[in-house]
Design brief:
It contains five helices and 20 strands. It is an alpha+beta fold. The chain folds into two domains: 2-162 and 216-249, no CATH class; 168-210, no CATH class. A five-stranded mixed sheet has the order 1-2-3-8-7, with no helix packed on it. It has a three-stranded antiparallel sheet with strand order 10-19-20. A three-stranded antiparallel sheet has the order 11-12-13. Strand 12 and strand 13 form a beta hairpin. The protein starts with a strand and ends in a 12-residue tail after the last strand.
Length: 261
């Protein structure tokens, strides 16, 4: 259901469901809770991805709340690709696992608090509406039942899609002009290559900055989808809610470059 990139560690965190529908977050033995891409490969290709049914040898089940879905797996003995779900099979699975309707009945508004309270770290929501998408942090804003959220998205396929379409500009660091909101304008005011950027972007000479405006291509994709599901997970340290999987019908077709995700 989700493969997310942990940038600082250059590792991947994975999560999914068993054939019986139980949430699991496979982790390697020891203190690490994530995998290098190489650990998830067979014949030079990562096979532990959304839509693939993979069989692991489980060493120990159960993690410390709220990460109760943790299952320690024997990565040294490998794993087996059982089969790849068809688009219809995956769409059916998403429909069965969505909890949007149930949370709406309960009037849940804060997904992070709900998960922590119920000693969980994973959930799937069917989004009723995509409200926005931004390039800077890969954030997605959405409405799902009684929940409205603006969350960072670390899904590897979404990151690959973002990198493919994200607007970037190279501008010369002319005098930085203060503008509204504590931002600066890099480049000469009025010049077509002038870029708005937060003050944390600094440097002399040639600098590369990301356009902080809406990720319009991503928002168009989300809004064109007939159905949109978001796998939500909690981070290990602060238990912050993030989007770990973006699943649309029709699905997002993109290749992940694991050497530079």
């Amino acid at each position: 259901m989700g493969t997310t990139w942990m940038g600082g560690k250059k590792h991947v965190c994975i999560g999914g469901v068993t054939p019986e529908g139980r949430w699991v977050r496979p982790v390697p033995p020891g203190e690490k809770k994530s995998f290098s891409p190489e650990m998830l490969m067979q014949n030079g290709r990562v096979i532990v991805e959304p839509g693939n049914e993979v069989e692991f040898l489980v060493l120990r089940q159960g993690g410390k709340a709220p990460h109760s879905e943790d299952v320690e797996v024997d990565i040294a003995k490998g794993f087996r690709l059982v089969h790849k779900l068809t688009d219809k099979q995956f769409a059916d699975l998403l429909s069965r696992k969505s909890e949007t309707a149930g949370l709406k009945v309960r009037g849940v508004r804060n997904i992070r608090d709900y998960l922590v309270e119920h000693h969980r770290s994973m959930i799937l929501l069917r989004a009723d509406e995509a409200l926005g998408a931004s390039a800077g942090e890969g954030r997605i804003r959405f409405k799902a039942g009684s929940i409205k959220a603006d969350l960072v998205c670390t899904d590897l396929r979404w990151r690959a899609f973002l990198h493919e379409h994200m607007p970037e500009s190279e501008v010369r660091a002319a005098p930085r002009t203060p503008i509204d909101g504590g931002e600066f304008l890099f480049g000469w005011p009025g010049h077509p290559q002038a870029v708005r950027a937060a003050p944390r972007v600094r440097g002399r000479g040639l600098v590369r900055v990301q356009d902080p405006d809406e990720f319009s291509e991503g928002l168009r994709f989300l809004r064109r989808a007939k159905l949109l599901y978001l796998a939500i997970g909690l981070t290990r340290d602060t238990h912050t809610a993030i989007v770990g999987g973006v699943h649309a019908v029709p699905s997002l077709k993109v290749e992940v470059d694991y050497s530079k995700p």
